[in-house]
Amino acid sequence: MLAPTVGHYTFVRDDGQPLDFIPGQFIQVHFQYADGTATKRSYSLATIHDHALGPGEAVEIAVSYVKGGAATALFEGLDAGGQVDASGPFGRFCLMPGDANARYLLIGTGTGVTPYRAMLPQLDALIRERGIRAVLLFGARTPEELLYGDEFRAFAAKHPEHFRFVPCFSRELPAPGSAQAHADVRHGYVQQFLDEFGPSADGDIAYLCGNPNMVDACFDALKAYGLPVPQIRREKYVSSK
């Protein structure tokens, strides 16, 4: 378990073929409702990898549990070694090779932060190759719901001049003196703190992933700052309900 209502799952293809992907892409898990109706859910791939994944190498996803959710029942009932039917990878919510921006604004809530975890090796390379900067604004209700927080803090410590990790807690702040109680912690919702980072059309590309209301609010705010739509890349989170 990553958090009280979030599970972390690792999968390997059962046909011996590789499941390589570009950070930011997702897979679709196919299953049936109790009445036999076919349905599917999308999950961003969270795996950190700095090479093309080969046969037998695993991929990871984070799954939010929703009370009464059909997909929640599927995953909660999955034993070690169990199987799911999935397709993909899909999507273009990725860092693009032709980007010439100076900074990335990475904004997410809940399991919407998983694509940013997968992007860490790419960000590391872009920092070395062209000195980009990045800010990760990550919204969670409480410290125990801050997914992959240790990894993002470690990356910020490795690149103090280039990467800022800004956890935004809407309900409960970390305990004073704890590892999570660093200077960039904020109390509130991610969209409340955009002003602090001065979004600019001249040097920024923004990514939005997570709660649809947050994505819409940040999208409108970034447009108001003057960012053109092509510089605002969004992926609305699909819950496991």
Question: Can you offer a commentary on this structure?
Answer:
The protein is α/β, with parallel strands linked by helices and 241 residues long. Helix content is 19%, strand content 28%. The protein has 5 helices and 11 strands; from the N terminus they run E-E-E-E-H-E-E-H-H-E-H-E-E-E-H-E. The chain has helices at 70-76, 114-118, 120-130, 149-158, 212-224, and strands at residues 6-11, 26-32, 38-44, 59-64, 85-90, 103-109, 133-140, 163-169, 186-187, 204-210, 232-236. The strands form 3 sheets. The chain has a 6-stranded parallel sheet, with helices on both faces. A 3-stranded antiparallel sheet has the order 3-2-5. A two-stranded antiparallel sheet has the order 1-4. It is globular. The relative contact order is 0.17.
